[in-house]
C-alpha cells in the first residue's frame, strides 16, 4: 500500500511542473486537479471490482458538465462524428436517400452525380444486402444500415438489389465517395415577385447555399423574400454571419460574443451580399435557436426586415469544441451571444437544472405564451433600441417577433396527430409511390401539372384509414373524420411530391397549412412599412 501511494505522489508531483510550462488561468486550482486525478488512480488500482477506466472518466466528465449550464456537453468518438457530419457539409458513403418500407431499404433518390447514380442505381430499387450482410427481412436498425453503407472514400460496397420488373437480384459495386449534405431545404418562387427560402440548420456550406439560392430566385424575378428559419436549431457561428451578410451592408454588426475569460469578439457583415435591396420577412418559432436567432436578431436590430412568428428558443451560449485524443469532444460554454443592439439571446437558467431547462416549451405552453401575445412577460429592465428606426426590442431570452402568430392548438384533430405520431403517412405514401412511381412520372411531367391536376385517390385514403385502425387509431366520430380528411389529402400529396421531385415541391404544398407562412405572405401583400433595403 505504501508503495502504491508513493507511486501516486510521484505521478501527481509532475502536474505542477507541467502547469508551469503551460499558461494557466489564474483561477485554476491545481490542487483540485491533483485531487481528481488521485481519485481516478485510487479507484482504478484499489477498488474491489474491475472498473472500466474509459467509462469511469466519461462518467466523471459528464458529472462535472451536468452541474454547469444546459449546453455544455460531452460526446464520445462515435457521437462526435455523427453530430458533426450534418454541419461539416459532407460524409463518405454511397450517395442515396432511402426510407424503410416494412423491413426493406427502398432508395428514394440517388445523389446527383454521386457514386450510386454513376453505377445505375435507381429510385425504387431495394438494397437487400451489403457485402455478406443481409439488410432486408432482418429488422436491422436504421443506424446499423447507415454504418454498413458509409465508409472511407475509395472503399467499395458490394450491393445486391431487387428492382421491380427484373426477375433476379442485381449486383452493383459502388465506390464510396464524399457525399454533400445540404442544409438548405427549399427555394422557390411563391408569386412572380416573392421568393421563399427554407434553411434547416447552419452548417459549413450554408452561406454558399443561401447565396446560390438567392441568385437563382433573383434570376426568376424575386423582389421580396420569405426566409424561413422555423425549427432551425442553429449550428456554426461563421455560417450565421455569412448568411446575414446577404442582407446587410458591409461592416454592419451581426453579433458579438463575450465571456468571463474570453475577450469581446465582433462579427460584421461581409461584402458582396446579393439581397441588400428588397423586402425580407424572417419566419421563426419556439424551436428556432442559436445561429437562427443571430440572423433574425441582426435583421431586426438593423431594421432590415420583419420577423414573424413566435418568440425563439433563447439559446445564446457559445460552445467551444475541445477535441480529446480519442476523437471524443467536450463542447464547453465560454461566451454569450449578443445582438447588434446589445441584447443577450440566452434565456435564464439555473446551473445544474437541465431537466427544468428542457421543460421550457411546456412552461410557455402552460402559461399561454404560445397562444396569446399578452401572456408573454417582457422584461421591462432589458429594453433596447433598434439601430436605424429606434424601435423598442426586448432582451431576456430569445428574439421576440415583430408580428406574433399564435400556435393554433386546434389546427389539427387528435386523429390526425395520432396518425402522424405513428408514422403512418410515410408508410402508406412510400408503399403507394413504390407501386405508382413510373405511372405518376409519366402522367405528371412537371410539378406545376401535378400541383394543378393530381388528386389523392380515395383508395389511398382508405389504405391509410385501414392501417390506422390496425394501430387502434380511430376518429371519435364522423365529424372528426370529415375535419381530418382535407389534411390527410394535403400531407399525402406533399409526400408524393417529395418523392417525385424534392423538398422545394414538398414545401410548396405543405406551407398551405402554415399560419406563420401565411402571415408573412399577408405582411408582404399589405404592410407598406417593411424596409425595402439595407440602410
What's the layout of helices and strands?
Elements: H1 2-21, H2 30-46, H3 53-65, E1 73-75, H4 77-88, E2 90-93, E3 96-101, E4 104-110, H5 115-119, E5 126-130, E6 133-134, H6 142-149, E7 156-162, E8 170-175, E9 177-180, E10 184-189, E11 194-199, H7 206-219, E12 224-228, H8 237-244, E13 253-258, E14 265-268, E15 279-284, H9 291-301, E16 306-309, E17 317-323, E18 329-338, H10 354-358, H11 360-367, E19 383-385, E20 392-394, E21 403-404, H12 414-421, H13 424-443, H14 447-453, H15 458-470, H16 478-500, H17 503-510, H18 515-526
Parallel strand pairs: 11-12, 12-15, 15-16, 16-21
Antiparallel strand pairs: 1-18, 2-9, 3-4, 4-5, 5-6, 5-7, 7-8, 10-11, 13-14, 13-18, 17-18, 19-20
Helix pairs in contact: 1-2, 7-8, 8-9, 13-15, 13-16, 16-17
How would you characterize the overall build of this protein?
Helices cover 40% and strands 20% of the residues. It is globular and about 75 Å long. Strands 3, 4, 5, 6, 7 and 8 form a six-stranded antiparallel sheet that branches. It contains 18 helices and 21 strands. The protein has helices at 2-21, 30-46, 53-65, 77-88, 115-119, 142-149, 206-219, 237-244, 291-301, 354-358, 360-367, 414-421, 424-443, 447-453, 458-470, 478-500, 503-510, 515-526; strands at 73-75, 90-93, 96-101, 104-110, 126-130, 133-134, 156-162, 170-175, 177-180, 184-189, 194-199, 224-228, 253-258, 265-268, 279-284, 306-309, 317-323, 329-338, 383-385, 392-394, 403-404. The chain starts with a helix and ends in a 9-residue tail after the last helix. It folds into four domains: 2-51, no CATH class; 90-180, PDZ domain (Pdz3 Domain), CATH 2.30.42; 184-325 and 332-350 and 357-404, 2-enoyl-CoA Hydratase, Chain A, domain 1, CATH 3.90.226; 414-516, no CATH class. By secondary structure, the protein is α+β, with helices and mostly antiparallel strands. Strand 3 and strand 4 form a beta hairpin.
Amino acid at each position: 500500500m505504501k508503495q502504491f501511494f508513493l507511486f501516486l505522489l510521484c505521478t501527481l508531483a509532475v502536474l505542477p511542473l507541467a502547469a508551469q510550462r503551460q499558461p494557466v488561468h489564474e483561477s485554476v486550482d491545481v490542487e483540485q486537479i491533483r485531487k481528481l486525478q488521485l481519485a481516478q488512480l485510487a479507484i482504478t488500482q484499489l477498488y474491489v471490482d474491475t472498473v472500466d477506466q474509459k467509462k469511469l472518466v466519461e462518467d466523471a466528465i459528464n458529472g462535472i458538465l451536468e452541474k454547469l449550464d444546459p449546453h455544455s456537453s460531452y460526446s464520445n468518438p462515435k457521437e462526435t462524428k455523427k453530430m458533426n457530419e450534418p454541419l461539416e457539409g459532407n460524409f463518405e458513403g454511397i450517395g442515396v436517400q432511402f426510407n424503410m418500407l416494412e423491413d426493406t431499404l427502398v432508395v428514394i433518390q440517388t445523389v446527383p452525380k454521386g457514386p450510386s447514380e454513376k453505377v445505375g442505381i435507381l429510385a425504387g430499387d431495394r438494397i437487400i444486402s451489403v457485402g455478406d450482410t443481409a439488410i432486408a427481412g432482418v429488422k436491422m436498425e436504421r443506424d446499423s444500415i447507415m454504418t454498413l453503407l458509409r465508409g472511407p472514400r475509395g472503399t467499395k460496397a458490394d450491393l445486391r438489389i431487387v428492382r421491380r420488373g427484373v426477375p433476379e437480384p442485381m449486383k452493383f459495386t459502388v465506390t464510396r465517395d464524399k457525399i454533400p449534405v445540404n442544409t438548405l431545404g427549399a427555394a422557390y418562387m411563391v408569386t412572380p415577385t416573392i421568393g421563399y427560402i427554407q434553411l434547416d440548420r447552419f452548417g459549413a456550406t450554408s452561406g454558399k447555399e443561401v447565396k446560390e439560392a438567392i441568385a437563382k430566385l433573383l434570376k426568376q424575378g424575386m423582389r421580396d423574400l420569405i426566409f424561413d428559419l422555423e425549427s432551425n436549431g442553429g449550428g456554426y457561428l461563421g455560417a450565421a454571419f455569412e448568411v446575414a451578410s446577404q442582407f446587410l451592408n458591409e461592416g454592419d454588426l451581426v453579433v458579438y460574443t463575450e465571456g468571463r475569460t474570453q475577450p469581446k469578439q465582433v462579427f460584421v457583415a461581409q461584402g458582396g451580399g446579393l439581397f441588400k435591396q428588397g423586402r425580407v420577412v424572417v419566419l421563426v418559432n419556439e424551436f428556432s435557436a442559436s445561429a437562427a436567432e443571430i440572423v433574425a436578431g441582426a435583421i431586426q436590430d438593423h431594421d432590415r426586415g420583419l420577423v414573424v412568428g413566435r418568440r425563439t428558443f433563447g439559446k445564446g451560449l457559445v460552445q467551444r469544441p475541445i477535441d480529446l485524443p480519442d476523437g471524443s469532444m467536450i463542447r464547453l460554454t465560454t461566451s454569450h451571444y449578443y445582438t447588434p443592439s446589445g441584447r443577450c439571446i440566452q434565456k435564464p437558467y439555473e446551473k445544474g437544472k437541465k431537466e427544468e431547462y428542457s421543460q421550457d416549451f411546456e412552461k410557455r405552453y402552460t402559461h399561454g405564451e404560445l397562444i396569446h401575445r399578452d401572456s408573454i412577460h417582457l422584461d421591462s429592465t432589458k429594453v433596447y433600441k433598434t439601430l436605424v428606426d429606434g424601435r423598442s426590442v426586448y432582451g431576456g431570452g430569445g428574439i421576440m417577433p415583430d408580428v406574433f402568430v399564435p400556435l393554433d392548438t386546434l389546427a389539427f384533430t387528435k386523429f390526425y396527430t395520432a396518425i402522424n405520431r405513428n408514422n403512418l403517412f410515410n408508410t402508406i405514401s412510400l408503399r403507394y409511390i413504390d407501386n405508382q412511381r413510373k405511372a405518376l412520372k409519366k402522367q405528371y411531367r412537371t410539378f406545376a401539372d401535378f400541383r394543378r391536376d393530381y388528386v389523392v385517390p380515395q383508395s389511398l385514403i382508405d389504405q391509410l384509414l385501414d392501417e390506422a385502425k390496425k394501430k387502434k387509431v380511430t376518429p371519435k366520430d364522423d365529424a372528426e373524420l370529415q375535419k381530418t380528411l382535407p389534411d390527410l389529402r394535403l400531407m399525402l400529396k406533399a409526400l408524393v411530391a417529395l418523392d417525385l421531385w424534392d423538398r422545394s415541391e414538398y414545401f410548396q404544398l405543405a406551407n398551405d397549412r402554415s399560419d406563420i407562412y401565411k402571415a408573412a405572405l399577408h405582411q408582404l401583400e399589405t404592410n407598406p412599412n417593411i424596409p425595402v433595403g439595407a440602410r
